[in-house]
Amino acid sequence: MTPSAEPVLDALRPGRGAASLRDGRRRPRAWRQFTRHGGAVAGAALLTLITVVALCANWWYPGDPLRIVAAPEIWPFEQWQYPLGTDALGRDIAAQLAHGARATLLIGITASVAATLIGVSIGALAAWWGGWIDEVLMRLTELFQIVPNVVFVLTVVAILGPRIENTVLAVALVSWPAIARLTRAECLSFKSREFVQACRTVGLSPWRIALREVLPNALPPVLVMGTLVVAGAILYESVVSFLGLGDPNVASWGRQIGEGRTLIRSSWYLCAEPGVAIMLAVLALNLVGDGLNDALNPSLRKR
C-alpha cells in the first residue's frame, strides 16, 4: 500500500476519521454507553461476584466438595458451620455451590470460545468467498440447526461419556450455527462498503482485506452473541447434570438439583439454592449482553 493511500482508507473505514480521533482522546464511547446501562452494570457486578466465588472456592472450601461432612438435611442457617445447610448425604451445599460455580463458568466460557471460533470461521468464509462454498457451508449450518439442541447435547454426551470435555464439545456443536449466520450477515453487509472497494483498488490481497478490514468490523455483534452462548451453555450443562449425564467427580449446580428433586417436598432448599444460583448467573450474562448490544450497536448508540 502506498503511503498516500492509507489516510484515504482510514477515512473510509467505519468509525474512523476526525470525529473518531477526537473520541479516542476521551473515554471510549462504547464504555460510556455500557456504564450508563443500569442493568448491564448490575449484571457485570453480579457476574464479577460469581467469578470471585469460583476463583476462591479452593481457598474457602479446601478438599473435595462432595465429601460427607455433617448430618444429612441440615437446613440453611441452622448451624453456622454450614450456612446453606447440607444435602441428603450430609455434604456441604455452600461448598458444592462454590466449586460448582467454577465448573459452570469453565464449561460456559470454554464452550462459548469454541463455538465462536467455529462460527466466525465458517460465517466469514461463506460470506467472503460466496458461490458453492457459501452454499455448502450454509447447508451444513442448517443441518445442525434442524436437530433439537437439547436432544443433540444429550446424545453426544451419552455416546462420548459423562465428562466435562464432552459436555463442552456438545454445547459448542449446538451453539456455533447462530454465530456463523450472524457473522455471515455482518460480513456481507461490509463486503460492498466503500472502504473495502478502496482496499481492492490499492491492491490489498483478499485475505488481508477479509482478516484486517472486514472481520474486525463484523465482530461486535458476535461478541454480544458470545455472552448469550455462555448463558445457554450454563443451562445446557445444568440439563445434562440434572439428568445424570454430568461428570460424577465434579460438583455441579444441575447435579445438585437432580439429586435434590426426590426430596423437594420435605427439603425444598436442596433444589432452590442451586436453582437460584443458575438463575442469577444466566440473568447476569443476559444483562451484560444487553449492555454490550446497546454499547456496540451503532443504531442503538445514537439513542
List the helices and strands and how they pair.
Blueprint: H1 5-12, H2 18-24, H3 29-36, H4 38-55, H5 57-60, H6 93-129, H7 131-145, H8 149-160, H9 164-191, H10 194-201, H11 206-242, H12 253-260, H13 269-296, H14 298-301
How does this structure look, described?
There is one protein chain. The chain has a single domain (32-296), classed as MetI-like (MetI-like fold, Orthogonal Bundle). The model is unreliable at 1-5, 7-12 and 16-27 (pLDDT under 50). It has 303 residues and is mainly alpha-helical. The protein contains 14 helices and no strands. The longest helix is centred in the middle third of the chain and has 37 residues, at 93-129. It is 73% helix and 0% strand. Its main location: membrane. Keywords: Cell membrane, Membrane, Transmembrane, Transmembrane helix, Transport. This is ABC transporter permease. Residues 101-289 form the ABC transmembrane type-1 domain. One of its GO terms (biological process) is transmembrane transport.
Précis, in short:
Helix content is 73%, strand content 0%. The chain has 303 residues and is mostly helical.
Features:
single chain; mainly alpha; MetI-like fold; elongated
Tally of alpha and pi helices: 14
Say what the CATH topology is: MetI-like fold
Sheet with most strands: none
Cα(first) to Cα(last) distance is 38 Å
User: How many distinct beta strands?
Assistant: 0
Rg computed from alpha carbons, rounded to a whole number of angstroms: 23 Å
Shape: elongated
What share of residues are in beta strands? under 5%
Q: Tell me the number of structural domains.
A: 1
Mean pLDDT: 81
Low-confidence stretches are 1-5, 7-12, 16-27
CATH architecture type: Orthogonal Bundle
Helix and strand pattern: HHHHHHHHHHHHHH
Kindly provide the name of the CATH class: Mainly Alpha
The CATH superfamily is known as MetI-like
Helical percent range? over 70%
SS content category: mainly alpha
Keywords: Cell membrane, Membrane, Transmembrane, Transmembrane helix, Transport
Subcellular location: Cell membrane
Domain ABC transmembrane type-1: 101-289
Family: Belongs to the binding-protein-dependent transport system permease family.
